Amino acid sequence: MGFGGCFENAAIASTARMKRFDSEPSEKIEVDFDLYIKRLEALCIHEIGHDVVRERAQHYQEAVWINAKTGHRLGLGLHCTDNKCVMYEVVDINAPPAEQGYMQLGEDKKYDAGLDEVIARLHDGGLCTRCKEAVRVDERYK
Description:
The chain is about 25% helix and about 20% strand. By secondary structure, it is α+β, with helices and mostly antiparallel strands. It has one domain. Strands 4-3-5-6 form a 4-stranded antiparallel beta sheet, with no helix packed on it. Strands 1-2 form a two-stranded antiparallel sheet. Strand 3 and strand 4 form a beta hairpin. The longest helix has 20 residues. The protein is globular and about 40 Å long. The model has no long low-confidence stretch (mean pLDDT about 90).
C-alpha cells in the first residue's frame, strides 16, 4: 500500500504504482498522462502537507487500513477528515471493495479512499479551509 511518506526532513513520493489503472507497479506510464500528473501532484502536495500543516490536532484523526477478511490493521498516521482535501488519506488508486477492507478514520469507517476518487472531488487548491488555516511554512522552504 503506500505511495509516499513524510519523514523528519524528507518527503518521498513513489510513482511506480501510479502509472497504471490498477495500482500494479510499472516502468512505463499506461494511463492518460494528465491523470498521471494529477496523481503525482496530489501525492506531492499531500506529503509536503504533512510537514507544513501544523495545527492539525484540531481536526486530524488517526487513519488505519483494516483488512476486512483478516482484521489486520495498518496504521497510516494522522489525516484530514474532509474527503475533498488533499490531506485525506488514500489507500490505493481506486478504493478497494468493502469486502476487502476499509480505512478507519477516527471512529468512522471510510470506503472512499481511492486516489482517483479523491482527485475527482478535491477542493479548489486541494486543501480544505481548516488545513489552509493551519499551514506554517518555516525557513527550510524559503
